[in-house]
Amino acid sequence: MIRCFRPGDEHALRDIHLASITQVGPLAYNPAQVAVWASKTREPSEWLEWFHFGDRITIAFSPAGDPAAFTLLEADGHLDMLYCHPDHTRQGHASRLIEEASAFAVRSGLAMITTDASELARPVFLAAGYRQDSREDFLMDGVPIHNYAMSKDLRQVAEVQPIN
């Protein structure tokens, strides 16, 4: 099941965010990079702010009904976050969330969707039809880290049924 954020979901999103960074992140990033990335974990109150601001937060649930993954799509078409809990990786949640974000963006009249994908998320975005525009090397609190600027032209995306 996939649905939009509701107040009360914010603690689960924080937990997914932190668990993904600290438990999946080490597959592609070194300990210093993981530590600095984890230090940027969003607090529950920030999720409520994004929700009230109008950003689209979508959550995928496990068959048991547990929050498993989420995306945060900004109004300008930037997919700011895609995170999956380590217990629920490789189950298609990320692909379904990317598809839903694209469909929502099309319904919103956007022609392009962009993201800054981690090393681990990059293959999922490529499989979803995104192109890699560039590798972005930068410092986060003095620690060198990287991601990939990626984009997808939405003019070819077929609209799908909206979720609630």
Automatic annotation (TrEMBL):
PROSITE patterns, alphabetized: GNAT (PS51186)
The enzyme's E.C. designation: 2.3.1.-
Record's keyword terms, sorted: Acyltransferase, Transferase
GO molecular function: acyltransferase activity, transferring groups other than amino-acyl groups
Enzyme class of the recorded protein, top EC level: transferase
InterPro entries: Acyl_CoA_acyltransferase, GNAT_dom, N-acetyltrans/Recomb-assoc
Any Pfam family hit: Acetyltransf_10
UniProt-listed SUPFAM superfamilies: Acyl-CoA N-acyltransferases (Nat) (SSF55729)
Residues of the N-acetyltransferase domain: 1-155
Name of the featured protein: Putative acetyltransferase
Natural source organism: Novosphingobium fluoreni
